[in-house]
């Protein structure tokens, strides 16, 4: 049975908005909690939260088990938010075969409204067992799904994979980031960042190597402006933080753009970034949502798309905004264990956004899913900081 502990309004999305003037970038309670969702006895985690550009309905996908770590039988489930309507109950998307378990889930939409969903499934989190990278799609907001297809393992011979991240289409090219490791337990020895690339609507996918190094650089997110793409990943070496890659040929080849901490103090561990895009007065803006795992604060930083594509310094530190502290939504009475892994979408290409995040209290304690609205009270300041002329 599902519970909405602080229910105010279901996150519907899709309506046009008139963006109000801004006030301050120092508001630590910027997000408005719309629902805290708990499925009794279940552990719902990772996944995506996106809006269908055609129907305007919203889909939230995630793994559904009883723990963070490997669990045979862990499956893919979802929730559907009908535009200006009710939320469907929890529904299942995929149940693995006996002895296998799903770990990470991610999806995104193409311009025609098709939802492209990926998940990785495993026979265990130990070396020398089976691992698969799977793909399915839905043309009806998750009511029905294609038969899941194995898109193959990375061509570098790595034996294990994770698909945390988004799925984005630009100019008819679909990209899905993922990462691989030598085998379970060996990611710190060697890891690789890949994108799956499709130019035929998801009928076939090619594995494109972005970078392979003897370090742990892993979960990421992509975003595009035309044929130019950025790929942000969490960096679990050195001072931690995030690494950016850039492609100028629609994702065929990639180069390291640089590493950054976005002005954050040294972290013992970073969290996966989430890239998004919208417009202000016709100017394309990129947003990077991220969590400082030490402080458990969810933050966002902005930059003009042209500036962040030109260089990593294009992310404007003056626009960095603290959205909330995960522990401030602590329903379990103890500090959260791992918090974040969120996802945001911007409504009708505007600053107004809706998103999710998660509260984990232990590796086996059920996750609380937080649904948020991102108000636009910082609109005026954001225009000023980015040098965008009012119209």
TrEMBL record:
Domain of life: Bacteria
Gene3D superfamilies named in the record: 2.120.10.10
Domain Sialidase: start-end pairs: 110-262
SUPFAM superfamilies per UniProt: Sialidases
InterPro entries, sorted: Sialidase, Sialidase_sf
Pfam family, one: BNR_2
Name the record gives this protein: Sialidase domain-containing protein
Organism: Pontibacter saemangeumensis
């Amino acid at each position: 049975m599902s519970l909405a502990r602080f229910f105010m309004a279901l996150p519907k999305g899709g309506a046009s908005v008139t963006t109000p003037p801004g006030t301050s970038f120092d508001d630590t309670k910027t997000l408005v909690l719309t629902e805290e969702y708990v499925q009794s006895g279940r552990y719902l985690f990772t996944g995506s939260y996106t809006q269908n550009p055609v129907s305007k309905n919203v889909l939230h996908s995630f793994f559904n088990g009883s723990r963070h770590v490997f669990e045979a039988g862990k499956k893919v489930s979802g929730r559907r938010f009908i535009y200006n309507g009710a939320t469907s109950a929890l529904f299942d998307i995929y149940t693995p075969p006996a002895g296998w378990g799903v770990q990470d889930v991610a999806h995104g939409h193409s311009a025609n409204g098709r939802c492209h969903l990926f998940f990785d499934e495993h026979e265990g989190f130990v070396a020398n067992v089976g691992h698969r990278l799977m793909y399915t799609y839905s043309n009806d907001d998750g009511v029905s799904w294609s038969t899941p297809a194995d898109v193959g393992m990375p061509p570098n011979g790595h034996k294990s994979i994770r698909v945390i991240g988004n799925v984005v289409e630009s100019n008819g090219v679909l990209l899905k980031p993922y990462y691989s490791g030598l085998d379970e337990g060996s990611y710190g020895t060697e890891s690789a960042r890949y994108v799956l690339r499709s130019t035929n609507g998801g009928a076939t996918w090619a594995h494109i190597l972005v970078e392979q190094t003897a370090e742990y650089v892993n979960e990421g997110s992509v975003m595009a402006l035309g044929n130019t793409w950025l790929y942000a990943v969490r960096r679990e070496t050195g001072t931690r933080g995030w690494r950016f890659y850039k492609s100028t040929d629609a994702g065929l080849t990639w180069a390291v753009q640089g590493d950054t901490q976005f002005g954050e103090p040294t972290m013992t561990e970073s969290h996966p970034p989430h890239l998004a895009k919208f417009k202000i007065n016709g100017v394309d803006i990129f947003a990077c949502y991220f969590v400082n795992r030490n402080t458990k604060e969810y933050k966002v930083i902005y930059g003009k798309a042209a500036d962040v594509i030109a260089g990593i310094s294009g992310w404007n530190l003056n626009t960095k905004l603290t959205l909330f502290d995960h522990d401030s939504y602590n329903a379990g009475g103890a500090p959260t264990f791992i918090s974040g892994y969120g996802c945001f979408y911007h409504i009708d290409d505007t600053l107004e956004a809706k998103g999710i995040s998660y509260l984990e209290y232990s590796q086996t304690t059920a996750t609380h899913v937080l649904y948020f609205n991102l108000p636009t009270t910082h609109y005026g300041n954001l225009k000023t900081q980015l040098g965008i002329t009012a119209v």
